[in-house]
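Notebook, student rotation project (T.W.).
Task set for the rotation: take a protein with a known small-molecule partner, predict the structure of the complex, and write up what can be learned from the model alone. Partner molecule chosen: zinc ion. Sequence and SMILES entered below by T.W., checked by me.
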Amino acid sequence: MDCGRGGPAGRLDGKKKVFLVGNPNVGKSALFNVLTGSYVTVSNYPGTTVDVSSGVMRVGGHHEYAVLDTPGMYSLCSITEEEAVARRMVLMGRPDVILHVVDAKNLERMLPLTFQLVESGLPVILVLNLYDEMLGSGMRLDIAHLEHDLGVPVAQTVAVSGAGIENLRSRIVEVLEGKYQYDGQHRPYTAEMEGRIAGVAKLLKNEHPVSPRLLAILALQNDRETMAMLAAEPELGKIQALACDASSREAAMRLSRERQAAATAVVEEWLTVQPREKAGRWKEALSRLMIHPVWGLPILAGVLWFGLYKFVGGFGAGTMVDLIETFFENRVNPGVDAFFAGLFGSGALFDLFAGEYGVVTLGVRYAVAIIFPIVASFFIAFSIIEDTGYLPRLAMLVDKAFKLIGLSGRAVIPITLGFGCSTMATVVTRTLESTKERILATFLLALAIPCSAQLGVLMALMAGHPGMLAVWGFTVGLTFVLAGFLGKRLIPGEDADFFMELPPLRLPSALNVFTKTYTRMVWYFKEVLPLFVLASAVIWLGRLTGLFDVLIRLISYPVQWAGLPAGASPAFLYGFFRRDFGAAGLFDLAKAGTLSGNALLVAAVILTLFIPCVAQFAVTWKERGKWMAMGMAAFIFPFAFFVGFALNHILSFLGVVL
Amino acid sequence: MNLSEAAHEALERYWIENKERGQRWGLPPSSPDSSAPEALAASELAEGGLAAPGPLAGQALELTAKGWEEARRCVRRHRLAERLLADVLDVKKEIIHEWGCRFEHVLQDGVEESICTLLGHPSSCPHGRSIPPGPCCAEGRSHARRLVLPLSECEPGDAGKIAFVKSPDAGGMDKLTAMGILPGQTVKLLKKTPAHLVQLGESQFAMDKGLAGRIHVRLGRGEGK
Ligand SMILES: Nc1nc2c(ncn2[C@@H]2O[C@H](COP(=O)(O)OP(=O)(O)OP(=O)(O)O)[C@@H](O)[C@H]2O)c(=O)[nH]1
Ligand SMILES: [Mg+2]
Ligand SMILES: [Zn+2]
Ligand SMILES: [Zn+2]
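Predicted structure of the complex:
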């Protein structure tokens, strides 16, 4: 989720590498945070982490290890893109130890992946996380025997409370410093499968980061990426003949079943279940309400009303913006103006920093007084919602409706995240399964999902006019639905299936909500502030050279065409940099009283449909390719003006004056 | 009784025409010099005492009581074979009938009953035609429901072991297999709307109808409604 955070960085060079690997939502990132003392996003839904993050773990005075957090994956045969990222790390990242993190209460389902990781020949430690929840559901595990049986170190942890972490650290050191003897045994399959595995394995001649045995197994499962890894093998033809015959799916199924049977046998031996405690009952009841086809809707409405409208719109965009805006206008701007007037007189340099379009008086003010409070309140609300586990339930609730517009319920997560920051959200579309769904979600994010900053400004502007807000919501909503509806039919490829694990509802921790909001804000501002400053500077340069006027005049054509006063043009010019920046421009215009009700509405609609920002464009370019990115931009900007134009005409045709 | 394939076909056709279409259709008369497969089949049936000349025009043969019994078993086996191919082996619908013909011979008497039970004593073939019930069905149908059925046809509260998972196309690992949804595991259907919610171990999975329809479970005794 933390876009912009790179892969394994240079500072990890030479250090031994610890990989956190496992199913989605088992607490890998939470463990990463306690082991390294840094922060990556932790949320209660599968697919939070979509990229690799790295950090350093210090043990005592003289041990420093690199720790890498990976996206969750269900098996070594990846289905979604973020799973492919994780799998590539395991197969090619040459870890010194793999921490296989599992949900202790679901050990039976997750143990087959442990076997696969052990088959890689790399050292593995099994981490039974969420141990508190396991105990809570009445299970007891004989860990000493389990460890003996599996032949790998086993450690139980509670990542969120820190329980078991010291033990885990010492187990890591034990393995990395060569003090743990792996016996090199692996769990045998049936004789027939072993024969087929050995047949492929002995054909592998090249050096690979993982054992020939694992590669042979994956090849037998006809795994495409494994076959690509083996492309340089001298005996490739024979390998293909053995591996890719018609029975590959059957082989995949048999190997999986055999692994599962072995896992079941182990768990049945060492796990005892006592009568369940009834503590979690109200959570189960609440969960049922959230996904109830009827009762789920008022709950959703409540979440939107309190979370979005009241908290973000009312408190963030209303109260907080007012406070900080007033502070800027009364205290900061006059001071800044005076300071730079004293420094540069009233020339061009003064205009760069202060005055109407100055970097400080305009750029910084927009960022700090308008964007900051809104985005911060959005991220607080969103983090709380994320941590409860509501989002996967919402996904389930809306799946059928989303199918009509070519998306599956899974797309709820990137789409809602898009209200916070569509750059982050575009990266998160990786968790969607089909290319078609990813393209469509990216497009809808770019077109019809306003970001919170913009939404907040618009809500504040239209606060007194519910009718205007309704028409705006209807127009943007209709665009969203129509675009999806057409996209579903026009974009080639199959519609996605819906499949999602529902995590248990959990109580959000204030610390995680705070830290997550804070890191997201830091990230957001690193992205936003330079852009704001740059935009102000470019505009200053443009004014200095007269280019600004040319651009404004250019933009004033579509602006007037859509029925807006030419004076609104600068706001749209900002909108090309970031649409919330444009919205902030509208804020100024509306306060000055230069916009009629209809014009404000039309301008709001056009700006909402704009591409969110330069950064989002860049991410689309990276994730979907340059043609897709440029194609989307080429469509969206004229289309936004077209919708504004149409809306304006419909309004005047109907004689509506807002 | 060891009948040729052509004789099987003739019996089935006779059953369909006379029993299901309400026609009066007779087997072509047996004539030693004809080499048409239908005529050969007819004489084979006549020799076995399954068919005899009746009141129909043109000396057409009619089935005897023994012949009717054989025809009924034939149809039953053919349609059970079709069900097996469709539900368990996921053979394409267009070729099911043809395969059913070849497959029915495998379903000899003992096997026929256990297949029928595995499939939950189905009452119709994939083409929608009714399957004549066998002795096993009388007791089985008192449970009123198939024993093995897709999750999408289960009711909330139903639980059982996964019998098999149909996969849509060949090559590589199936998504559900990768997720660890494998035969032999116990699952419980919690909800059907707005999507299917399935309990597997301590986890809950939400999925749409299409995926749920691929997971076939053998309902546990007493756990169903
Ligand atoms: N009670 C309890 N909750 C935990 C524990 N570890 C993690 N969690 C919670 O489990 C949820 C998932 O944690 P993450 O760290 O995001 O899981 P992840 O494995 O990184 O998930 P992905 O990135 O989606 O693969 C969060 O809500 C955590 O607060 C634990 O030991 N006990
Ligand atoms: Mg994570
Ligand atoms: Zn049929
Ligand atoms: Zn029966």
